[in-house]
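lol forgot to send this yesterday, sorry. struct tokens for the thing we talked abt
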């Protein structure tokens, strides 16, 4: 199992829209996430800094292939067309990344 933590900014004027979208997440989006081996997926909001932190566990065998399936999914593309304008990527993210992947420095079960 692989744990993944990521961070991204959120535009203050879009917080309520982002909350509403996720309060009513589309079933096909949730199904695609689960089919790609992702479990315990959570997104947190930190105000007033306006940061989103996401964390999930990956329980598959080919992470790159599974996240590629998510990115290729037509429903996911439509979902991202709604959520991406709410987000503000960090300047420090790696080339090609939208969310900034974080380094895990501690874990305790």
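and heres what i got for the seq, position by position
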């Amino acid at each position: 199992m692989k744990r993944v933590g990521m961070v991204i900014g959120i535009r203050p004027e879009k917080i309520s829209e982002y909350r509403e979208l996720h309060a009513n997440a589309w079933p096909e989006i949730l199904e695609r996430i689960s089919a790609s081996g992702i479990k315990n997926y959570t997104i947190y909001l930190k105000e007033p800094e306006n940061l989103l932190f996401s964390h999930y566990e990956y329980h598959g065998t080919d992470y790159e292939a599974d996240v590629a399936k998510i990115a290729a999914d037509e429903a996911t593309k439509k979902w991202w067309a709604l959520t991406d304008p709410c987000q503000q990527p960090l300047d420090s993210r790696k080339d090609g990344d939208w969310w900034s992947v974080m380094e895990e420095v501690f874990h305790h079960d």
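The beta strands are 2-10, 38-46, 51-58, 87-88, 100-101. anyway ping me if u want another try
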